[in-house]
Amino acid sequence: MVANTTPIYTLTPDVSNNNGTGFGGTILTATGDYTGQSANHVLVHTAGANGSYIRRLRFKAIGTNVATVARIYINNGSTNATATNNVFYGEVSLPATSATNTASTPDIDYPMEFALASGERIYAGTATTVAAGWICTTIAGQY
Fold first, then answer.
1. Which of 10, 88, 108, 143 gives the lowest tally of CB atoms within 10 Å of its CB?
2. What gap in Å lies between CA 29 and CA 42, rounded to an integer?
């Protein structure tokens, strides 16, 4: 049986972390887990009342950092301090970076391409503490 014969598209572009006007904080301090429970994880996206579609995450260094790994978690909309509310979705290597006025730091894109249900969230964190930090921007749309 066909459930949906009409494609749906996002209504509103969204690069915020809270389905509105907020933006994710700097990812700076090591999370030290694979569960998503650490208080050092940063909220990078929240699906709105009708859900959202996530295209990708973009990680951008904001200065000099050691190499690390970004870990990405999907949360069911409840507290991320409870491990069973999170699923470890994936990880991406983040290179060492140097702040300079003569060369750019890399843009690291992590493709996602899936829908989130209403209220679900995405958190990200680094495996090691870095000096300047990384910003994670979600490229998404709200239904």
1. 88
2. 10
Question: Is residue 134 situated within a structural domain?
Answer: yes
- Which of these, 136, 126, 142, lies nearest to 33 by C-alpha position? 126
DSSP letter string, 69-102: EEEEEEE-SS-TTSGGGEEEEEEEEE--B---SS
Whether 73 is in a domain gets the answer yes
* Digitized pLDDT (tens) for each residue of the chain, 143 residues in all: 667 777 788 888 888 767 676 777 799 999 989 999 999 999 999 999 999 999 999 999 999 999 999 999 999 999 999 999 999 999 999 999 999 999 999 999 999 999 999 999 999 999 999 999 999 999 999 99
CATH at residue 133:
2.60.120
Query: How many separate domains does the chain show?
Result: 1
Q: Is residue 3 part of a domain?
A: no
Q: Model pTM?
A: 0.91
Spatial separation of the C-alpha atoms in residues 84 and 87, rounded to whole Å: 8
- Please, are residues 15 and 135 in contact by the beta-carbon 8 Å criterion? no
Q: Is residue 52 part of a domain?
A: yes
- Which structure tokens are listed for 98? 């140097």
